[in-house]
Amino acid sequence: MIDGTFSASVPHFNQVFSLHCIKYGYNFPCVIGLLPGRTASIYKQVFEVLDAAAQRLNCKFNPNKIMSDFEQALIKTIASYFPNAKHSGCFFHYTQCLNRRIQTLGLSRFYNNDEEIRSLCRHLMALPLMPLEDVQRAFETLSEEAPVELQPFFEYFEDWWMKKVPFRLWNVSNLKVKTNNNVESWHSRFNKRIEKNHPNFWSFVNTLKQEEVHFRQQLIHGNS
């Protein structure tokens, strides 16, 4: 699982990038890095550094399953660097994208007060839970039912989610883990331990050390 958080980044950096895995039923942050931006070239450099580190340890940095948000630079880099990995977008981030678009289009009033409009929007939000082969037909059915107020929203959905983002990336119907909410929970916990936005470098490092001790103990207990 891959994600980023921004409020905990130190000055002169853009984000705290983290890579997590699930072990013994727990979420473990395996890689935490400070990145200066969110471009494909930066993500490629991160993967190259991790690949080289894995080789020094006689390991392979070649995950077969990856979950992330829908950041285009990251999606592009994952597809290029891990062409054989099963890459899935987080269902929670998908619904967040749709909720933000509802607000951007000024549809919040309709969504909050009109049950028909709210139901249609929620059906769109639930499309990733349907079998992949049924998504196209379900979208067409919903489009036929959409009132004029929702036309801009459905046009956005068709242009982006139906044409530009592959179905396989946002369809989670066959996944046991459909979100990276456990990563978001770690971000929340980490940000609270930092105590303030954009801390100084040494405060950030000290918090990382505390996190390492915490998760090392958790890993030992989980393996006992």
Describe it for me?
It is globular, with a radius of gyration of 20 Å. The strands form two sheets. The chain has a three-stranded antiparallel beta sheet. It has a two-stranded parallel ribbon with strand order 4-5. The longest helix has 22 residues, at 201-222. It has helices at 40-56, 72-81, 91-104, 108-113, 115-125, 135-145, 151-162, 167-170, 181-194, 201-222; strands at 2-5, 15-23, 26-35, 65-68, 86-89. The protein starts with a strand and ends with a helix. It has two domains: 2-89 and 179-222, Nucleotidyltransferase, domain 5; 91-170, no CATH class. It contains ten helices and five strands; from the N terminus they run βββαβαβαααααααα. The mean pLDDT is 92. With 224 residues, it is α+β, with helices and mostly antiparallel strands. It comes from Rotaria socialis. This is MULE transposase domain-containing protein. Residues 2-95 form the MULE transposase domain.
